[in-house]
Write a structure and sequence with these properties.
By secondary structure, the chain is α/β, with parallel strands linked by helices. It has 8 helices and 11 strands.
Length: 291
């Protein structure tokens, strides 16, 4: 995108919470495509403005996107000789700076305004997330919201899913298991979540797996649901303990780590029957009415 009015475009990226790398020509010697001071913004999938095109711009774009991919936050300065080795015959040289700006913001849709959700948001608000916090109960929300959190009081939480952007993170933490199930179906039907987790025990997971398969959902779709949620080695049922565990899993996910699926054992003698109500202690709900 050729647009030297990069200041306005940078403001738009900041508003959307999208990270970029600003590439600047710091010094030009001899024959170069653009003069010193020329800037270009590189996001994960777009270019804003240009430093002259050609192989120099292609290489600079690759380097900037690698920085975005690995989350490199350090300013870099590189010199390029525009000779045959670089695929350009200008004969000059250019010194470029690579300046990371902003941090990629993930969109988290959080259903439920109970104790665990409140504890979790105190951590998530310090992470690269913008949060849409949804509950039917106005009085469950605190008077003051944390930065980056937008509350949505809705009589139809399930219906709100269709309005959420693609690649959103979803966390289902409501006080109602049937609502959890309907939310699960809507999230799976939309089919574009970056991460979908639901608070619950292994017993709850077994029941949901069974009910979903009975309604025609294949195993691939069911496996996109993470339940129980959180890092298994972090034990405890206190809201703050669960919140730390779940936040750790969210961090691991956006850093590109594989999320462990805490699945019910397949060795049970009841494996081909409808799940029973046996208690499973691994990261169970805090309590039914305190989520």
């Amino acid at each position: 995108m050729f647009n030297d009015n990069w200041i306005h475009e940078l403001a738009k990226l900041e508003e959307k919470g999208e990270a970029c790398v600003m590439v600047t020509v710091l010094e030009d010697k001899g024959s170069v495509p653009r003069d010193a001071g020329t800037k270009m913004l590189v996001t994960r999938d777009t270019l804003i403005a240009t430093i002259g095109g050609g192989h120099l711009e292609h290489l600079a774009t690759q380097m900037a996107r690698e920085m975005l991919l690995i989350g490199d936050r350090h300013l870099k300065v590189e010199q390029f000789n525009l000779g045959a080795r670089l695929g350009q015959c200008c004969g000059g040289s250019a010194t470029l700076s690579f300046e990371p700006i902003g941090q990629q913001q993930n969109h988290l849709v959080l259903f439920g305004a109970g104790h665990v959700a409140k504890a979790l948001l105190h951590i998530v608000s310090t992470l690269p997330f913008k949060v849409t916090w949804i509950d039917e109960r106005e009085n469950e929300f605190p008077e003051q919201l944390l930065m980056g959190v937008t509350k949505l009081v809705s009589d139809d939480p399930v219906g709100e899913i269709r309005h959420m952007p693609a690649n959103s993170y979803y966390l289902v933490m409501t006080h109602n298991h049937q609502l959890d199930f309907e939310l699960t179906r809507a999230i799976l039907d939309k089919g574009d979540s970056a991460y979908f987790g639901m608070i619950g025990s292994l017993t709850k997971r077994k029941k949901f797996d069974y009910r979903l398969s009975q309604r025609g959902y294949d195993q691939t779709a069911i496996n996109t649901m993470t339940c129980p949620i959180g890092i298994a080695s972090v034990k405890g049922k206190h809201p703050a303990e669960i919140a730390v565990s779940v936040a750790g899993e969210l961090i691991a996910h956006y850093q590109g780590e594989t999320i462990e699926q805490k699945r019910p054992s397949q060795t049970s003698r009841h494996e081909n029957s409808q799940p029973t109500d046996e208690v499973d202690p691994v990261h169970s709900e805090y309590t039914r009415n305190k989520q």
